[in-house]
Amino acid sequence: MTTLILIVHVIVSFALILIVLLQTGKGAEMGASFGGSNQTVFGSQGASTFLSKVTTGAAVLFMLTSLTLAYLASQRSGSVMRGSAPVVDVEEQAVREAQPEAPAPFDIPTEPVADAPALPVPPPAE
């Protein structure tokens, strides 16, 4: 269901772009912006054209599909990664198993050693 709505949404969005690009500008005349155009029953623009009605219909359909997709996305629970196994590189795992274990790090005593000889202290410089 979500896939079907998504396909309709994409088709309507491309159709809406094309319909808007096909329309002529409403304020193309300079006199229309200053109120110099003649006033008719339907306003200065005249009756709505076929393209403006199709634009309105496409915009309403676009909004409905957007809201529906948002609602369906909010109803999903959990992560998309749930249930997927971690990806393990087989070659990397074989190399790790073939390598010997690393030697243990040197033991550093935490307490001073009593039997250790003292370092000679140099005489003060004159």
Question: How much β-strand is present in the residues?
Answer: under 5%
| Rg result | 38 Å
Determine the number of helices (DSSP H or I, runs of at least 4 residues): 4
Shape: elongated
**Considering DSSP H and I runs of 4 or more, what fraction of the residues is helical?**
40-55%
Low-confidence stretches: none
Instruction: Please give the largest β-sheet.
Output: none
What structural class do you assign from the helix and strand content? mainly alpha
Distance N terminus to C terminus?
93 Å
DSSP strand count: 0
Average pLDDT, to the nearest integer? 77
Could you spell the SSE succession in H and E letters? HHHH
Summarize the structure.
The chain is mostly helical and 126 residues long.
Can you describe what's shown?
The structure is a single chain. The chain is mostly helical. The protein has a domain of 50 residues. It is 48% helix and 0% strand. It has 4 helices and no strands. α1 packs antiparallel against α3. It is elongated. The mean pLDDT is 77.
Task: Note the topology.
Layout: H1 2-22, H2 30-33, H3 50-75, H4 90-98
For this entry, give a set of tags.
mainly alpha; 4 helices; 126 residues
